[in-house]
């Protein structure tokens, strides 16, 4: 049997990630490979750090892409900052807060859980109570943009509370970076991780991270070795540190880093605030169309991520069958619900390059057609509502 080259179908990716990738990013990946210690590549690494600092809005020297996906960025933060016996307050309002708790426990720490219902943001009042009740806590960990629901938590307020109690913060912004306002320095974030496959519209496989000087001091003062050799920042910085001389640590994913560099250049060209505004604009049109079909959102408007939209499945509809038909008939991918919302919601992504009018209208027309075939919506309303929303925004000059 002869196996031929794999040729994937063309999809429109509007699930929780990965997102559609800018053709410039795909083109960058095909550029000639050079050595990971080549002086030219080292120069690109320095540019990459500056571009990531812009995306995170930070001057942190320890800002770099981990050579692995967002889950490894999460582990990088926890294995470097949590030592055996440390007490960590972990906020859980979805799947990814639960993963934070798992990381704390695997590092030998003790997790104090602050729990909120899925679809709600992390409660600052509950966090304040937990900090008061656990004065020996060393870290507060929470998710900025909860991918499992589309809920956005108040990073600035939560970090301020942590500072008041001399706690470091670990923040998950895998879905937040470049899609929603994020000011690492101004908000006092100590450690943060993200992913390349969401609002940066790059290919999966890298995890941008950034650490404050307070976090670096904690890492350097550890009494135990970091449990992961590969993710030990004391070693990684020998490769990603400043200057032209780099110590070999691992063979970097060179072409993937070309892609991230290009995606960050594109972000810089657009402007970070313009990227945030674009996500809001297309969310507003998508929201108008979804609501015109009678679909309801899981997350309240004031806490909703524009880039990740969770909507309830109409009663009596087989949500998996709808997703399957969208993929087969229209080449459109949307996401299923997780945890308590499995089978109850769809998660519709509007991320990065995919946050555009064509994708919004494609999604609405396809979803409306599939639901109309099932007799649960009236055709024609969604597209009209979305176009009216765009017209209103264009007339008023607003972004949402």
Automatic annotation (TrEMBL):
Top-level taxon of the source organism: Bacteria
Cofactor: pyridoxal 5'-phosphate
SUPFAM superfamilies, per database record: PLP-dependent transferases (SSF53383)
Gene Ontology BP annotations: glycine biosynthetic process, by transamination of glyoxylate
Residue numbers spanned by region Disordered: 1-21
Entries under InterPro entries matching the protein: Aminotrans_V_dom (IPR000192), Aminotrans_V_PyrdxlP_BS (IPR020578), PyrdxlP-dep_Trfase (IPR015424), PyrdxlP-dep_Trfase_major (IPR015421), PyrdxlP-dep_Trfase_small (IPR015422), SP_NH2Trfase/AEP_transaminase (IPR024169)
Protein name per its UniProtKB record: Alanine--glyoxylate aminotransferase
Organism, as annotated: Thioalkalivibrio halophilus
């Amino acid at each position: 049997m002869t196996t031929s080259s794999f040729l994937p179908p063309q999809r429109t990716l509007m699930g929780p990630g990965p997102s559609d990738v800018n053709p410039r990013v795909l083109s960058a990946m095909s550029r000639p490979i050079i050595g990971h210690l080549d002086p030219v590549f080292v120069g690109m690494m320095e540019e990459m750090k500056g571009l990531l600092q812009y995306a995170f809005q930070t001057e942190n020297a320890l800002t770099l892409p981990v050579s692995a996906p967002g889950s490894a960025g999460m582990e990088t933060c926890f294995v470097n900052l949590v030592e055996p016996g440390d007490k960590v307050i972990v906020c859980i309002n979805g799947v990814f807060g639960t993963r934070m708790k798992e990381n704390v426990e695997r590092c030998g720490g003790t997790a104090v859980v602050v729990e909120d219902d899925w679809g709600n943001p992390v409660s600052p009042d509950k966090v304040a109570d937990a900090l008061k009740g656990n004065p020996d806590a060393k870290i507060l960990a929470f998710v900025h943009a909860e991918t499992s629901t589309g809920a956005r938590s108040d990073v600035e307020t939560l970090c301020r509370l942590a500072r008041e109690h001399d706690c470091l913060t670990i923040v998950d912004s895998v879905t937040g970076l470049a899609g929603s306002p994020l000011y690492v320095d101004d908000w006092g974030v100590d450690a943060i991780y993200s992913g390349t496959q969401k609002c940066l519209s790059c290919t999966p496989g890298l995890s941008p991270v950034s650490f404050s000087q307070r976090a670096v001091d904690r890492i350097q003062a550890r009494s135990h070795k970091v449990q992961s050799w590969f993710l030990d920042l004391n070693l990684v910085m020998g490769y990603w540190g400043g200057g032209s001389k780099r110590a070999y640590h691992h063979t970097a994913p060179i072409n993937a880093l070309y892609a991230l560099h290009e995606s960050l250049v594109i972000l810089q060209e657009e402007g970070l605030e313009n990227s945030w505004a674009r996500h809001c604009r297309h969310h507003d049109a998508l929201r108008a169309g979804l609501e015109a079909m009678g679909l309801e959102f899981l997350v309240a408007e004031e806490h909703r991520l524009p880039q990740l939209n969770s909507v309830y499945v109409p009663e009596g509809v087989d949500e998996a069958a709808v997703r399957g038909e969208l993929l087969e008939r229209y080449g459109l991918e949307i996401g299923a619900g997780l945890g308590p919302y499995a089978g109850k919601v769809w998660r519709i992504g509007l991320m990065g390059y995919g946050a555009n009018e064509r994708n919004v209208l494609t999604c609405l027309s396809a979803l409306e057609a599939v639901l109309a075939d099932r007799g649960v919506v009236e055709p024609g309303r969604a597209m009209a509502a979305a176009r009216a929303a765009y017209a209103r925004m264009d007339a008023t000059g607003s972004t949402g």
